[in-house]
Amino acid sequence: MTSANPIDPGLPARAAQALAALVEAARLGGEIAIRDFVSGARTGAKIDYKDGGSPVTSADLAVDRFLRARLAAEFPDAGWLSEETADDSARLARSSLLIVDPIDGTRAFVSGDDRWAVSIAFAVEGRVVAGVVHAPALRQTYAASLGKGATLNGAQIRASGQTSLAGARIGGPRPLVAALAGAAQVELVGEPKIPSLAYRLARVANGALDAALASANSHDWDIAGADIVLSEAGAGLCDPEGRPLSYNRLETSHGPLAAAPLALLPQLASALRRALAGKTA
Fold this sequence. Notes:
The protein has two domains: about 10-155, Fructose-1,6-Bisphosphatase, subunit A, domain 1 (Fructose-1,6-Bisphosphatase, Chain A, domain 1, 2-Layer Sandwich), CATH 3.30.540; about 170-275, D-Maltodextrin-Binding Protein, domain 2 (3-Layer(aba) Sandwich). α5 packs parallel to α6 (about 220-230). The strands form four sheets. A seven-stranded mixed beta sheet has the order 3-4-5-6-7-8-9, sandwiched between helices. It is built from seven helices and 16 strands. The longest helix has 24 residues, at about 10-35. Helix content is about 35%, strand content about 25%.
């Protein structure tokens, strides 16, 4: 599916209505998760491990069950895609889709690091039109809907005015950030690792970071909620070729990604492309 173009005149109002439901669901889901979270200490939740070794806790699964029941009632015609639910290709036939990560940053949740989030997005014809990234332990809620701007805890936010990679504050995997700095031949201000990708990207939307990177193999549920927050805050998320993302595809994973204010994004994408190719400016 491709992004809705041209935009249905009624879509912004529909998206704003959807956002209210997403924010409330994320808040309630966060309340469920935080019962098992201990800031600065290991979680009391039961921990299992998926194929590949990534953890999943009883809290992830409890939040997933809650959100699916809650959002199915709010969006009966929408498909469902969640990190903690077996994917069903029947979603591809739906014009709208809910994209959910019940706890983005499960390793952080397990270890007592506050930087994890509940991420929910609502997509129409492959385009995210409403999304929320709710970090319960930090008491931060990033939210946005199509044409209505982005907010943090209800206050409007904008991405930074950074227009040059030189001196940019950037979050991402350390080796990728170092490779990008080498490719662009600039000094970057690296941010300590932010374990939740959704939260890392959302920090670009309010100017806490000038840019963020994601290594290969992020999935729709990691990024969709933040994608609309970025775009409504004057920033963007793209692949190394500068292409925006689309959703409700059969393949849910992505290659490396870049997020930055729109004035900086082409430079960032170009530098990321060169870094991945092992080239310098």
